[in-house]
Amino acid sequence: MTPERRERLLSVLNKRQAGLTVVLENVQDPHNISAVMRTCDAVGIQEIYVLNNKIPRHKKWGAKSSSSAAKWLTIHQFSEVDECITALRQKYDKIFTTHLAADSVGLYDIDFTGSVALVFGNEHGGVSEEIRAQADGNFIIPQVGIIQSLNISVACAVSIYEALRQRTLAGHYNQKNLPDEQFNSLLNQWGFIGEEEQEF
Fold it and tell me: DSSP string spanning 50-99?
């Protein structure tokens, strides 16, 4: 590994956020998943959770232009809701789902400076009732148009960029956020990704 490449990898790892993640529940279109992965990488999310308990497990992550992001992320796949929720509770203090309900809060009212997992649901049915029952609350993205929904990858991007904004103001990107063991393991793992596959 060249010194320049090592410096670049260290720069990216120093901005990875341990207290922020995205959960995709039964998202069908692999292109949507790929787009979410690319945005997660862009804002410094390292770990994402993919729950497929009503659709087949994904074997690949969509178009080549987006799927390259998967190499740089830690992807946890689950086929059981309880197993996924248990894993989330071990690492994150709050779980919020995208769902329009009487008690839903606005995206901008969520405190993203803490430890937060955001759940995005199936393109047609949204987040399941089973997940919502175990979450800490629901949130909505403010919209003033006629069509009151966004594509899942767009909804995710809007949401986690608000998280980036808040966490930037709080100084979370100015210091190493990942635990030492995970940081060093990723640095070693990324070092073996071929030069020809690099996105930088």
Answer: EE-SSSPPPSS-S-HHHHGGGGGSEEEEES-HHHHHHHHHTT-SEEEEE-
For 158-169, write each residue's pLDDT tens digit. Answer: 999 999 999 999
Domain membership of residue 160 (yes or no) is yes
Residue 194 located in a structural domain = no
The CATH number that applies at residue 18 is 3.40.1280.10
Residue 54's pLDDT band (cuts 50, 70, 90): low
Task: Find the domain containing 81 and state its range.
Answer: 3-184
**Residues 148, 151: Cα–Cα separation, whole Å:** 10
Is pTM beyond 0.85 here? yes
Give the type of residue at 139.
F
